[in-house]
């Protein structure tokens, strides 16, 4: 039996996310934006809640297409607020529209959002060596700097804890515990 990070045990969806996505270095702008949207909605909630609603989010937010999201009307916002399949939080919905605009501005300025987001880890994966999950911090100097810069650049719902979780999700930080079978696998990617 494969040894995994204990946080993913108990849920088939969580295990699949852990085994396939979490901690894998990601450089696709569309997926980077998707995770930004999901992390925005995760603020104050469990990641399992978001994973369970991920497909509903995908449908509600036009497959996480930033170009479409920036054009959302008040009617679309009301539709989202009435959608029981997602987290119905007006601040987070408005933040997603705002962040889509900022995302597109960054793409235009730098050529890709990937270029922007990976600058915080000097375009490399930070590989930690935690023995237990209790050692994993909720923030770091890198997530502090990222949060500060993203807020300055106009992004919303990008506190340092959200930024740290985002960096873990997109594989910019490898926080698989060292005895998890994925620890060495993602280091080779």
Automatic annotation (TrEMBL):
Q: Which Pfam families match?
A: Adenine_glyco (PF03352)
Indicate what this protein is called per its UniProt record: DNA-3-methyladenine glycosylase I
**Species annotation:** Carboxylicivirga linearis
